[in-house]
Amino acid sequence: MAYVYDPANIFARILRGEIPNDTVLETAHTLAFRDIRPQAPLHVLVIPKGPYVTFDHFAAEASEAEIMDFMRTSARVCEMVGAAPGQGGGGYRAISNAGEAGVQEVQHYHLHILGGRMLGRMIPREQA
Ligand code: DGP
Q1: pTM given for the model
Q2: Cβ neighbours around 117 below 10 Å, total
């Protein structure tokens, strides 16, 4: 089954400039901006500018240039916001929710970068 990208999703509207965003970093293929409902003191979303629905869609079908740009931009964001442990930062969690089980709200691939406090276990033991 092929992915169907809905260009009416909220991040597509942000990319078209129809909705404002608090940009952290923008490159040729990637945009990083603050989450509107932060779940930690640091909560940045990194999105590709191309029409990809999920992580696996992006990883399978994006060009090498898009993937390279996305990864390098994510690394720069971690460093810029003081989260990258190798750069003296306090650490972070990078999460991507996909589909129904992943409880993905916005149907445009995005990487959450969360930090600024102790985040606890990825999934509480009792829910595993
Ligand atoms: P997910 O469940 O992984 O699809 O998370 C979507 C995230 O997107 C959620 O943390 C809230 C955020 N979000 C939703 N609408 C907007 C918006 O209009 N602007 C910004 N900056 N973030 C948004």
Answers
A1: 0.97
A2: 11
